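Much of our argument rests on the idea that a fold can be written as discrete symbols. Part of our work consisted of pairing the sequence of a single chain with a tokenised description of its backbone. We regard such an encoding as a compact summary of how the chain folds. The amino acid sequence and the backbone structure tokens for this protein are reproduced below.
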Amino acid sequence: MSNQTVAIIEEAAQAGKVTVPAASVWEVAMWEKRGLVVLAKPCAHWVADALSAPGLSVQPMTSEIAVEAVNLPGSFKGDQADRMIVATARLCGGRVVTADHRIMNYGQAGYVGVLAA
């Protein structure tokens, strides 16, 4: 991540405004299960440690987010997890921190706030 992105995230954390979609937690667990990432400790412990950072909270999956993920405006071709992450950001008024070009292009089209990772 760029120094500017890190600074923006740190400032938001100090204000208690960094939110992790529950879908992101699910995605990390799936990656670990499939061997796409190797964590230094069991996934549940890694997630608990990561989510204990000051200023950070988890946005639970809600029925509104689930419906929004299915009905995103425009043409978004992301997988289910990406759709849930984008829907969470849209409904919560947040930005997605990502290097994923599909999400970045969707943000450039004006459908969701994006911060390049």
